[in-house]
Amino acid sequence: MAVESDVTLLYIVAGYLAVMLGVGVWAYGQTNTAEDFMVAGRSLGTAVIAGTLLATWMGSGTVTGGANSVAYDNGLIPAILFGTAALIGIGILKALAPRIRGFDKLTIPEMIEAELGKEGRIISLLVIAFAYVGIVSYQFIGLGYVLNVTTGIPVSQGTLIGTAVIIALAAMGGLMSVAYTDAISAFLMLVGLVIAVPFVVLEAGGWSGITASVPETHLDVLGDLSALEFFALWAPPLLLILADQNMYQRIIAGETDEGTDAGLVAWFVGVVATMTLVPIIAFASRAMFPDLDPGMALIATTTELPTWVGGILLAAAAAFIITTGSSYLLSACTNLSQDLYKGLINPDASDQQVFWLTRAFVVVLGIFAFVLGQEFPTILEVQMYSYTAYGAAITPALLAIFLMRERLTKLGGLTGMIVGALLAITWDTVLASPYGLDAVIVAAPIAGLLIVLVSTLTDGESAPRPSQA
């Protein structure tokens, strides 16, 4: 079965985009300071916290990469198991939430500098900017897929339009606009997926028809993946979520500790639902469209459903993509304005200077992300590369700050960050994956071991430590 574009689906997606941009215009008027722009003035309630966490985490990597691609390429069960990485990470973040809020910092580099000095801040802001630009790049492409299905325009042209929409939303109201559009999008996502699943399964020939049409190995526990191949896909999301600046900023942005905790629990439930429903749709898509680009698996099914169902599902996919793209773009720009410019170049910068510089960086980095996205052959590839770079360089050091704070030394932390970053970047590309191992299997464990080992062997002193809750 070939995928044929259906322009009537565009009307529903366009309606959603109009609502999102309308919220962005409203948030523009509500955003007056750098803190408003970066952490929404620390004013978010439970429902908005839950919605923004879910919508930010479940982006194009979910509906065009990640669980979607694994279900289409490898099987249903490994795709559902893939989602357990995020669930473990959410549980750990909930346990760390009081400490994260008590740190009283707006960015991950600020937290790292408190323990590892300016060197740690510089390394972390460079790694975060690099990884987040990669993540943003495939959100643009994901929206290009949506526009391809609805209008028939080439994915490259759709990607350009997606770039403009995501940049505009992030630049208008910062986290204030992103958080509220996230809450709307999270509701749309869950409703769209729940409604669509039975229609997709029936259209694909029922469950027996689907299982008879997919490769036999796709019914195994790990599909056609080896244990090491599965782990190489599973570990990067876990490493990212444990230290993801977007998640930390949303935890900080909560109005109360109780509301934030409730929001984290709701996020967990939302991820359980999403990471089950998306793989089912993509798995059914393999029976319907056996020769697709895996990134198109979920999106392609919308063309074979009743228009109102396909439109809702496609709008839900657009919701995933746009909110995540805006969030990660905004977060990377926060690092450049707050950590690089104000933290290192101009400590006396005014709040308004930081505020407007962040907006300017949104445009500059957005354009760079578009260019970067053209260099990777698949969304899943750029997704894993970005996650691994972040997870190897940032996550071990940040967890060490929270979990072994009294024993962590500056030299230990910096050694782990530098080695982790270098291994993540060069292991697959320059060294050609020695012993057949993926970078994530090597880089993050070595970084963590070096932090512990070097900290044990040295007597270096950490920077002055902030009080913690």
SSE blueprint:
Elements: H1 8-30, H2 34-39, H3 46-57, H4 60-63, H5 66-73, H6 76-82, H7 84-102, H8 108-151, H9 155-203, H10 206-213, H11 227-243, H12 245-253, H13 257-288, H14 297-301, H15 307-345, H16 351-373, H17 379-393, H18 395-403, H19 410-426, H20 439-457
Helix pairs in contact: 1-9, 1-15, 3-9, 3-12, 3-13, 3-15, 5-6, 5-13, 6-13, 7-11, 7-13, 8-9, 8-15, 8-16, 8-17, 8-19, 9-13, 9-15, 9-16, 10-13, 11-17, 11-18, 11-20, 15-16, 17-19, 17-20, 18-20, 19-20
Pfam families: SSF
Family: Belongs to the sodium:solute symporter (SSF) (TC 2.A.21) family.
GO cellular component, one term: plasma membrane
CATH level 4 superfamily = Sodium/glucose cotransporter
Largest sheet: none
Shape: globular
Tally of alpha and pi helices: 20
The level of helicity is over 70%
Q: Terminal Cα separation, in Å?
A: 57 Å
CATH fold descriptor: Sodium/glucose cotransporter
Low-confidence stretches: 462-469
Membrane topology: Multi-pass membrane protein
Family: Belongs to the sodium:solute symporter (SSF) (TC 2.A.21) family.
Keywords: Cell membrane, Ion transport, Membrane, Sodium, Sodium transport, Symport, Transmembrane, Transmembrane helix, Transport
Pfam family, one: SSF
Describe this structure in words.
The protein has 469 residues and is an all-alpha fold. The protein has a single domain, classed as Sodium/glucose cotransporter, CATH 1.20.1730.10. Helices cover 78% and strands 0% of the residues. Helix 5 (66-73) runs parallel beside helix 13. The longest helix is centred in the middle third of the chain and has 49 residues, at 155-203. The chain starts with 7 loop residues before the first helix and ends in a 12-residue tail after the last helix. This is Na /proline symporter. One of its GO terms (biological process) is sodium ion transport. InterPro entries: Na/Glc_symporter_sf, Na/solute_symporter, Sodium:Solute_Symporter.
